[in-house]
Amino acid sequence: MTKLDSKIPEGPLAEKWTKHKNNIRLVNPANKRLIDVIVVGTGLAGGSASATLAELGYNVKAFCYQDSPRRAHSIAAQGGINAAKNYQGDGDSIYRLFYDTVKGGDYRSREANVYRLAEVSTNIIDQCVAQGVPFARDYGGLLDNRSFGGVQVSRTFYAKGQTGQQLLLGCYSAMSRQIGKGKIKMYNRHEMLDLVIVNGKARGIIARNLVTGEIERHSAHAVVIASGGYGNVFFLSTNAMGSNVSASWKVHKKGAFFANPCFTQIHPTCIPQHGDQQSKLTLMSESLRNDGRIWVPKKKEDAEAIRAGKLDPTKIAEEDRDYYLERRYPSFGNLVPRDVASRAAKERCDAGYGVGTNETGEAVFLDFSSAIMRYGQEEANVKGLHDASQEQIRQMGEQVVEKKYGNLFQMYEKITADNPYKTPMKIYPAVHYTMGGVWVDYNLMTTIPGCYAIGEANFSDHGANRLGASALMQGLADGYFVLPYTIGDYLADDIRTGPIPTDTPEFDEAEKAVKDRIDFFVNNKGSKSVDHFHKRLGKVMWNKVGMARNEKGLKEAIEEIKEIREEFWKDVKVPGSPDGINQELEKAGRVADFLELGELFARDALLRNESCGGHFREEYSTEDGEAMRDDANFTYVSAWEYKGEPSEAVLHKEPLVYENIELKTRSYK
């Protein structure tokens, strides 16, 4: 049976990464030309890894199901990327970023991995500036920073509300250079459908050309999974509709342990759901909480009048507004971590103070009026307009806010038809990021030799809750600065191996399994669409495995997901042919994987009898509704080994040892 070995280096925390790099094996430049690496996914993690590995001399085969790497879901990240540069001189440091990340994750992450992340974060900004990423700058021309939830410093670098897009374009430019040189062979519109293992090592993948339908064999000396997270197991999430778990799930079914599946982040600032026909949710950047104040009416009758459309929220007096985050968490206010802000919003709405238009009133206000007037007054003072009218001050303030968040405000107005400069935004929590993922060791290798997982696809750096602006940081850290070092330690054994042949029994078997599954889908005489089953799964997940969970609901969810899965395999209908573009066929395979993951997700949540970060069990909460951890029994990583049905998965525990940080109850008050 596979044993967990995290391979964390010995020595003081601050020296582990440097000593590890000094001691691991290398592949010399001439030998790198003899080695092939497959990278599945070309978002920030996969794209940066592809570009860097190719720059080092490896032959890279990069796969994405989109028509271009520029379409990866990383493009949707808005608010920024963290780095411990301390440009603001406000007390930030590598150690403080490390501490904030471990605390923000509710003490459920590895110290060594998180410290390394904080350490290499400073290099990321220099790398991206060199690529031409247009980060915001202050009046003196230096890079600007803003704050995000769960911290008391400004360490987030940003490019308006489109940071992910700009970082991805920088990453893509580095990839394009290597594509032009022939060091990266790019496979657009290809989807990985299985991992091929030869003599116990990952040696290739089976992929489907999504345009022609052709099933292809691709070999390499190592395979890197960089395919993102699994938030779409909930159907509605902030993820792109195509985001899926399939690449990660395929390697899990071939022997890679899947870690902490129940650690899923609910983001507090999303545009509320608008109806049953909606296919995804829209994120409003956490950066908005720098200047926006979150509130609901103090009086239920005011909330009811707003829901009924009879009361304009701007008419509610200041003393009749409940700025509940500022009231409950005075030290952090509106910038508490995402899990805390999300639960607080749910509590207010459940209590009857929500302001949404749906029956449950699921929305709270994110109001910029105070910031607009504050910035406007500053501008008036700078310009010497000491007798400026309130309207002039408001206009100048709106111009300042537009410079910081303009595209976000425009996006909100396009979707809701409300002008957020004049009327408070309505927001409500939604599924966003998944902290769980494929288990990896310190080198980012899974429990399958030669198979790596990076970025959101792995579990490694965030614990039970991710701090805002840390997803981009982890993806680029893994791709630019960690994997390119650590993969050489493994590939040093392959300099004499030669090209991996694809005409072997292992490739034959994997291709046959893929084709059999496709044949089943297109020939099954069912009556219900793939989306029918995905929506049903999503409702079970949100209602019973979502923001709040309890033993009764989780046990019901496990049984209900089993029933949905059984019905799916009997009654799913996939129209069209496998020989060409067939998006229903693509979705069928992805939803089949979600239906297995969903059950394991619920099992993991059921067995973790505590509340921590994004995993909130109602039975384990304090009197004032905060999460109650059980450090004596649950300070470990849940790593699940595939054994067939999700109900048969075997749990392995990686103990989490804290030598540099004291375990204590999180407090943001």
From TrEMBL:
<dbReference type="InterPro" id="IPR030664">
    <property type="entry name" value="SdhA/FrdA/AprA"/>
</dbReference>
<protein>
    <submittedName>
        <fullName>Succinate dehydrogenase</fullName>
    </submittedName>
</protein>
<dbReference type="Pfam" id="PF00890">
    <property type="entry name" value="FAD_binding_2"/>
</dbReference>
<dbReference type="InterPro" id="IPR015939">
    <property type="entry name" value="Fum_Rdtase/Succ_DH_flav-like_C"/>
</dbReference>
<dbReference type="InterPro" id="IPR003953">
    <property type="entry name" value="FAD-dep_OxRdtase_2_FAD-bd"/>
</dbReference>
<dbReference type="InterPro" id="IPR027477">
    <property type="entry name" value="Succ_DH/fumarate_Rdtase_cat_sf"/>
</dbReference>
<keyword id="KW-0560">Oxidoreductase</keyword>
<dbReference type="InterPro" id="IPR036188">
    <property type="entry name" value="FAD/NAD-bd_sf"/>
</dbReference>
<keyword id="KW-0285">Flavoprotein</keyword>
<feature type="domain" description="FAD-dependent oxidoreductase 2 FAD-binding">
    <location>
        <begin position="36"/>
        <end position="472"/>
    </location>
</feature>
<dbReference type="InterPro" id="IPR037099">
    <property type="entry name" value="Fum_R/Succ_DH_flav-like_C_sf"/>
</dbReference>
<dbReference type="Pfam" id="PF02910">
    <property type="entry name" value="Succ_DH_flav_C"/>
</dbReference>
<feature type="domain" description="Fumarate reductase/succinate dehydrogenase flavoprotein-like C-terminal">
    <location>
        <begin position="534"/>
        <end position="668"/>
    </location>
</feature>
<dbReference type="InterPro" id="IPR011280">
    <property type="entry name" value="Succ_DH/Fum_Rdt_flav_su"/>
</dbReference>
